[in-house]
């Protein structure tokens, strides 16, 4: 059995007898703590999803000790400017041992979670179908922009015009002059 629970603003996947390091809590060492914001419960094959939290579910833990995390070096440098800044940081942490997961009312919310799962799945394809219908319109607009490029061909070099002619599959471009290439590309 495991649960996903929010502790001190972060989500953790916890199981019984597991050690968890969280941001510093206000409780004293040795005290028991209960977290009611359980987002997901898994018990064998039964998965219960909260919307957003499961009513009546809780995770009970014991505060083992308060400590500092490993030192993290923050080094900033801007090249060629002579700017360097070195900074260190140690996060204050609390070590918790998960003593148990209480799942009161989990069976009641399991049926609600399953029905809520199915409703968005059915509605999602309908919403996604509408933007796909608009995609061909954008392609039509791009093809209308092609004549504007034809007007600016006089500004292009002969080499660029030859490359464009090759991509369009025009043959005999090696002996063509600039005016002939522009005329062939405009057709």
Overall description:
The protein is α+β, with helices and mostly antiparallel strands. It folds into 2 domains: 2-114, no CATH class; 132-186. Helix content is 35%, strand content 40%. The chain has helices spanning 106-144, 146-151, 158-168, 178-186, and strands at residues 2-7, 10-15, 19-23, 32-35, 38-43, 46-49, 57-78, 83-103. The strands form 2 sheets. The protein has a 4-stranded antiparallel beta sheet with strand order 2-1-5-6. Strands 3-8-7-4 form a 4-stranded antiparallel beta sheet, with no helix packed on it. The longest helix has 39 residues, at 106-144. It is elongated, with a radius of gyration of 32 Å.
How far from one another are the termini? 71 Å
Strands in their spatial order, largest beta sheet: 2-1-5-6
How much strand?
A: 35-45%
The total tally of domains equals: 2
SSE string, helix = H, strand = E? EEEEEEEEHHHH
**What would you report as the Rg, rounded to the nearest angstrom?**
32 Å
Query: Shape, please?
Result: elongated
Q: Overall mean pLDDT score?
A: 80
Strand count:
8
Residue runs with pLDDT of under 50 for 5 or more positions: 106-133, 138-146
Residues in helices, as a percent range: 25-40%
How is the main sheet built?
4 strands, antiparallel
Q: List the total number of helices.
A: 4
Structural class: alpha+beta
Describe how the helices and strands are arranged:
Blueprint: E1 2-7, E2 10-15, E3 19-23, E4 32-35, E5 38-43, E6 46-49, E7 57-78, E8 83-103, H1 106-144, H2 146-151, H3 158-168, H4 178-186
Antiparallel strand pairs: 1-2, 1-5, 3-8, 4-7, 5-6, 7-8
């Amino acid at each position: 059995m495991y649960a996903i629970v929010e502790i001190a603003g972060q989500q953790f996947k916890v199981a019984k007898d597991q050690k968890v390091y969280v941001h510093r809590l206000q409780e004293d060492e040795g005290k028991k703590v209960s977290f009611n914001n359980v987002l997901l419960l898994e018990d064998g094959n039964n998965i219960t999803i909260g919307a957003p939290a499961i009513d009546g579910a809780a995770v009970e833990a014991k505060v083992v000790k308060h400590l500092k995390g490993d030192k993290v070096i923050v080094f900033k440098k801007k090249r060629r400017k002579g700017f360097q800044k070195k900074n260190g940081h140690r996060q204050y942490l609390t070590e918790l041992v998960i003593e148990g997961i209480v799942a009161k009312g989990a069976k009641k919310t399991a049926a609600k979670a399953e029905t809520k799962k199915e409703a968005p799945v059915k509605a999602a394809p309908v919403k996604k179908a509408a933007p796909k219908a608009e995609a061909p319109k954008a392609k039509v607009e791009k093809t209308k922009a092609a004549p504007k490029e034809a007007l600016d061909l006089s500004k292009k070099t002969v080499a660029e015009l030859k490359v464009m002619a090759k991509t369009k599959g025009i043959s005999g471009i090696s002996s063509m002059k600039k005016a002939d290439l522009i005329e062939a590309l405009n057709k």
